């Protein structure tokens, strides 16, 4: 209980990430990583012409907004880290900075933007679904860091759902997951018209992915699921029994389907405490507990480095990034 109180207190006092925009900024040695965003967050009101510089918070919107943000990653970038800009003094040589924002009029305009950004090669995109206690800036910059460190060769898309962005918002976020299923289904349906889609989800975002795939299967949208090139759930904050039941209703079951787990995940220990169960899905290290489900469990318990909580090891620990990059070919 003391550990829980300390973590919640420290998290509540920590400064949150913000998006810094310097239009047209360039710097030798910096790498520009385009990040496409689909969000059902409501924006804050204001007169700033750069919509995504405004605060997208926990307010829910039944419709989706689409944008591309060009994120400049500084020459001093270290694998697994986000070099956060200060709100008042972002520095292109030291920080993640957005150098351009392009807003799309709707899904068709968004798909056309993806087509223009596509390199020669497979028609594939990556959709990243963030987890609990994540604001919009954190979702965008985290995906930019992941795409850069994993050397992504295809367009990447952040599905930025309305997390409260607060350690005290766990129940609110679980409700937002339910609210956001239809938006993710719309996004996947549009993307799979001309693309294969790899889904990567973290923490509570895994619950959102599973619920969405389940409802799509039940409603006869199996053709969309067939267009998925795989699913990876990182530190999934899901009840193990619920995951098994969800999986049984998903047909066809995407392949490959990977669970990245760790027995050292302190955040999932807290989630288990809050839900009254001994473990969450992201803490299991015995694949046999999932029966005959066609899933691959990758245990990162012994990987050192990354965030101290062990909840984001897969994309913050350089050793884990190197391992998973090699596994992905």
UniProtKB/TrEMBL annotation:
InterPro entries: AB_hydrolase_fold (IPR029058), DUF900_hydrolase (IPR010297), UCP033909 (IPR014586). Pfam families: DUF900 (PF05990). Keywords: Hydrolase. SUPFAM superfamilies: alpha/beta-Hydrolases. GO terms for molecular function: hydrolase activity. This is Alpha/beta fold hydrolase.
């Amino acid at each position: 209980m003391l550990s829980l109180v300390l973590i919640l207190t420290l998290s509540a006092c920590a400064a949150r990430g913000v998006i810094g925009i310097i239009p047209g900024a360039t710097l030798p040695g910096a790498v520009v990583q385009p990040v496409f965003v689909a969000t059902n967050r409501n924006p804050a009101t204001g007169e700033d012409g750069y919509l995504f510089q405004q605060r997208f918070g926990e307010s829910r919107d039944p419709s989706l907004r689409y944008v591309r943000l060009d994120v400049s990653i500084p020459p001093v970038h270290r694998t697994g880290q986000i070099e956060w800009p200060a709100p008042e003094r972002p520095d292109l040589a030291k920080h993640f900075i957005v150098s351009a924002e392009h807003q799309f009029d709707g899904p068709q305009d968004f798909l056309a933007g993806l087509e223009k950004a596509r390199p020669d090669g497979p028609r594939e995109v990556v959709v990243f679904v963030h987890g609990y206690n994540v604001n919009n800036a954190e979702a965008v910059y985290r995906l930019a860091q992941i795409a850069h460190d994993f050397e992504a060769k295809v367009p990447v898309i952040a599905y930025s759902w309305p997390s409260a962005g607060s350690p005290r918002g766990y129940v609110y976020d679980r409700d937002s997951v339910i609210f956001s299923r239809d938006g993710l289904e719309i996004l996947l349906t549009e993307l799979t018209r001309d693309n294969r889609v790899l889904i990567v989800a973290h923490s509570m975002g895994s619950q959102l992915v599973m619920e969405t795939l389940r409802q799509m299967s039940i409603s006869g949208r199996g053709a969309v699921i067939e267009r998925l090139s795989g699913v990876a759930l990182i530190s999934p904050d899901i009840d193990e029994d619920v995951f098994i039941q969800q999986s049984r209703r998903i047909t066809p079951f995407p392949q490959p389907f990977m669970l990245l787990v760790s027995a050292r995940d302190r955040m999932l220990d807290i989630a288990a405490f809050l839900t009254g169960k001994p473990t969450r899905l992201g803490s299991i290290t015995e694949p046999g507990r999932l029966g005959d489900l066609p899933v691959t469990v990758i245990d990162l318990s012994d990987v050192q480095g990354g965030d101290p909580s062990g909840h984001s090891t897969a994309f913050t620990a350089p050793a884990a990034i190197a391992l998973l990059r090699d596994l992905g070919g």
